[in-house]
Amino acid sequence: MENFIQPKILKGFRDFLPQDEILRSGLIEKLTATFRLYGFVPIDTPILEYTEILLRKSNGETEKQMFRFEDNGGRDVAMRFDLTVPFARFTAQHKEELYFPFKRYHIAKVWRGEKPQAGRYREFVQCDFDTVGSDSAVSDFETLSLMKAALSAIGVNEIKIHVNHRGIFNRFLKKLGISEKSEDILRAVDKIAKVGEEQVSQELAEITGNAEFSGKIIDYIKPLPSFEETLMHIENLAGGEDEDTNRMRAIYKMMKAAGIEGTYILDPSITRGLDYYTGIVYETFLEKLPSIGSVCSGGRYDNLAGLYMKEKLPGVGSSIGLDRLIAGLMELGLAESKGSYLDAEIFNTNESFIYQYQSVAEKLRQKGISVEVFPEPAKMNKQYSLTDKKQIPWGILIDDKQAESETITLKNLKTREIFESISIEEAIAKIKN
Amino acid sequence: MENFIQPKILKGFRDFLPQDEILRSGLIEKLTATFRLYGFVPIDTPILEYTEILLRKSNGETEKQMFRFEDNGGRDVAMRFDLTVPFARFTAQHKEELYFPFKRYHIAKVWRGEKPQAGRYREFVQCDFDTVGSDSAVSDFETLSLMKAALSAIGVNEIKIHVNHRGIFNRFLKKLGISEKSEDILRAVDKIAKVGEEQVSQELAEITGNAEFSGKIIDYIKPLPSFEETLMHIENLAGGEDEDTNRMRAIYKMMKAAGIEGTYILDPSITRGLDYYTGIVYETFLEKLPSIGSVCSGGRYDNLAGLYMKEKLPGVGSSIGLDRLIAGLMELGLAESKGSYLDAEIFNTNESFIYQYQSVAEKLRQKGISVEVFPEPAKMNKQYSLTDKKQIPWGILIDDKQAESETITLKNLKTREIFESISIEEAIAKIKN
Question: What is the ipTM of this complex?
Answer without folding.
Answer: 0.95
